[in-house]
Amino acid sequence: MEIIYEDNHIIAVNKSCSEIVQGDKTGDVPLSETIKQWLKEKYNKPGHVFVGVTHRLDRPVSGIVLFAKTSKALARLNDMLKNGEIKKTYRAIVKKMPPNREDELIHYLVRNEKQNKSYAYDTEKPGSKKAELYYRVIGKSDRYFLLEIELKTGRHHQIRCQLSKIGCPVKGDLKYGSERSNKDGGISLHAYRISFIHPVSKQMINLEAPLPEDKLWRSFNLL
């Protein structure tokens, strides 16, 4: 487990593509429980250790995940997320050059629970939720393009779904149209940066998660 930041109220870790943030039907040990055990051992805590999940990353996605160590911090971070006060920046590898070098994407997403998949539409549909993001192409290699993405809303599979909608599925993302899977079973989407006002100290916090070790991430000529 790679700790990016820790203080009395929050802890941020760099999640690998194989980990789940919170318990699910697989029964695999989630990151939240791993952190609880780590804190229990580090501080020799005899009783219950509080770790609150503030947001999630899809299992095949890597990068920064923020957890709360106190109920006060969790409540404030939840409010900040609802109000759009936590800025999240991702990096993604795609095979096809997007239609524009940079653009704002606005779609309406409909989630299919049975398929665990979202579908993007250009116009509002019954049960849809508005999804907004901004992307720009920041790098190019022999076969791929590197995108930086700023989320403006937080919808189910939002980046994966919206990039697929414009014909640029994330590398390795079979569910959303990629030609083949990645060797590690993940997809080439990384939660790279998170910026927010600390829920207790009120200081500005800017955190970055190092890119995965895969050499492809370092093969790009930055534009």
Offer a quick outline of the entry:
The chain is an alpha+beta fold. The chain has helices at 31-42, 71-82, 158-165, and strands at 2-6, 10-15, 52-53, 62-68, 87-94, 102-112, 117-121, 129-140, 145-151, 189-197, 204-208, 221-222. Strands 1, 2, 3, 4, 5, 6, 7, 8, 9, 10, 11 and 12 form a twelve-stranded mixed β-sheet that branches.
- The residue ranges in which pLDDT falls below 50 over 5 or more consecutive positions are none
| Mean pLDDT over all positions | 95
Q: What share of the residues does DSSP label as strand, in percent?
A: 35-45%
Instruction: Describe the global form.
Output: globular
Sequence of secondary-structure elements: EEHEEHEEEEEHEEE
Count the DSSP helices: 3
Largest sheet: 12 strands, mixed
Query: What class would the helix/strand composition place it in?
Result: alpha+beta
What are the key terms here?
12-stranded mixed sheet; 223 residues; 12 strands; 14% helix; alpha+beta
Report on this model:
- The protein has helices at residues 31-42, 71-82, 158-165, and strands at 2-6, 10-15, 52-53, 62-68, 87-94, 102-112, 117-121, 129-140, 145-151, 189-197, 204-208, 221-222.
- It is of the alpha+beta class and 223 residues long.
- A hairpin with a 4-residue loop joins strand 6 (102-112) and strand 7 (117-121).
- The mean pLDDT is 95.
